[in-house]
Amino acid sequence: MGHKERLEKFAARLELSGFNAYICVNESNVFYFTGLPSPATLLIRRDGHAVLYVSPMNYGLAEKEAPQGVEVAHLKMGVAPEALLAEILSQLGGMVGIDSLDFETHRKISGLIGGVDLRPQSRLVWDMRMSKDTYEVEVIREACSVADKVMRAAADLLVPGIKESEVKAELTAEVYRRVGQEPAFMPIVAFGERSAHPHGPILRGAARDRVLKRGDVVVIDLGVKVEGYCSDLTRTFYIGSEMDERLRNTFESVIHAKALAQNIMRPGVSCSYVDDIARDYLSNKGLDAYFIHSLGHGVGIDIHEPPRIGPGSQDQFVENNVVTCEPGVYILGEWGVRMEDTLLVTEEAAIPLTSYPLDEYLIY
Q: For the domain 134-363, what is the CATH superfamily, name and number?
């Protein structure tokens, strides 16, 4: 689906929902509808007419690259966001949606919007963004393929004596060596007891880095961005040929919990129920107290998107969701184990888009 078709589809949604227009200020939403990565404000009317308001710094690129049907408006330098929003709203009437509106901005414009009923309504966009079209799936698939290769390159570096920072630098360089691609987020590389922190340790003072030792558990979490779309991949490794039974059971339990959860991911299934399946399995193994985050999340333009796959989530899977499944067990002072793949949810199955082997976790 091209950007023009997305705008037309969204305009139809506006009409069905009773909105006269919609304003996107979130950069990811602007990118979704225009393909332009620079900060801007996008007005979409329910007749399909769209206007992109950009600063002088970004005007040249926007004028050249804006999709068909999007008018590009040149802003004066230094226009405040609330002033622009008030100006846009002065041209509108009735009910207008907006994807993000903070309290301070609303306070500043509340006396200036006249007869406009301005309503924060991010769900209107998310209802489209959650189901990926063919183009989106293909670029995410490419991002996942690159992530697999980068993980392989990172794993090949895991020899005693190397530092976390050296692995992180090399895997980041490996991403950039592939033209037109960049990391989707700052990668996590955590050795030994530091792997028990899901997002890695605080890198300051003496804890800024750590040298790899034999007998260490290693968590590597990385993502790649291709044409504005992300992948997400985590693998946990053990440096040695023999691990104790407790650690091996944890590896196998995490992998099995992941498989059970993925096997029931289908359109219409509750995201919280899928999280329950993985959590209940880990509970039976006495490990649920150490599973301290949600099972997964959506992936797309943002590395974390709806749906949220976790306790209390009100979301359900829809066809062509791209999501992660990433159960983890974290025992402070000892180690953490997390396995994560990016998946495409279809009517028949949740199809892994990342493919680095789950069982290749021994490095010796």
A: Creatinase/methionine aminopeptidase superfamily (3.90.230.10)
Which fold is adopted by the domain 3-129? Creatine Amidinohydrolase; Chain A, domain 1 (3.40.350)
Report DSSP state, residue 67: P
326-362 per-position pLDDT tens digit:
999 999 999 999 999 999 999 999 999 999 999 999 9
Q: Are strands 224-226 and 181-183 parallel, antiparallel or unpaired?
A: antiparallel
The C-alpha angle 160, 162, 166, rounded to 5 degrees, equals 155
DSSP state of 76: P
Condensed to tens digits (0 to 9), the pLDDT of residues 196-226 reads 999 998 989 988 999 999 999 999 999 999 9
Residue range(s) in the chain whose domain bears CATH number 3.40.350.10? 3-129
- Let me know: does 199 contact 304? Beta carbons within 8 Å: no
**AA letter at 47:** D
